[in-house]
Amino acid sequence: MALDLIDTNAGLRERLSTPRRTGTTIGFVPTMGALHAGHASLIGRARRDCGCIVVSIFVNPLQFDREDDLARYPRTLDADLDLCRALGADVVFSPTVQEMYPAPPRCTVDVGPLGDHLCGRFRPGHFRGVATVVLKLLQIVQPDAAYFGEKDAQQLAIVRRLVKDFNVPVTIVGVPTAREGDGLALSSRNQRLSREERELAPTLYRALRAAESSIAAGVTDAARIRRDATARIPADPRLKLEYLEVVTADDFQPLQQVDGDVVVAGALWVGDTRLIDNIRCEGLPNPGRDA
With a threshold of 0.85, does the pTM exceed it? Predict the structure, then answer.
């Protein structure tokens, strides 16, 4: 199957005019490239659901809070194109920064309280940049469905709120986190890990699983859940826990008591690589909430 590489907004709209005119469903997978098996699961799900698949590859400068992080983000376009071709994608949209932002944007998306905690607390402006580029891409591609990984759970919640609040006619599909055999969530940033750091990287997942076990056992005190989970992270100078929190499953606000379904989310520095992960947990109703 031929794969079209397009780098302009106008070119993409022209390419999609035929499937749009014929009523072919358009599925969209937005990425920043450095594609891996997690992205493959998104593309594969889109391929099963839709007749025309668009994958975007764009390293969005608006969502980086550190210039060195932006500069070091892996860029592997040739390999990404090979993967997209093998998975049956129809179009790769890979615009330049100048194409996406001809001038510094003066209008951006304020994500409100959804971005106040977790990653938003430690990466000022990150979710404003994410929401802004996602809204731009949805307007450019105009897909019927867009596919996002559940590993970035806070981002997924923000995107769902974005399309609801701005009446964007698209279905947002969350796809389960793809993991290595030892539980490490697949991420483009994993490429930065040294061999020794890679051995330490699943520490975050194990801590989250400990929190999940506590919740399943009926523990409702969030401070205790956090304390017991973080105790699973070894004292190693290469590890720095940024956060591990228990938050509401819908709007990602911190909790003191577990009452129903929650998300346990964490960010861990392994060397100079920042990893994030989360687990959605089914908590028991807290009988003392209304006491």
Answer: yes
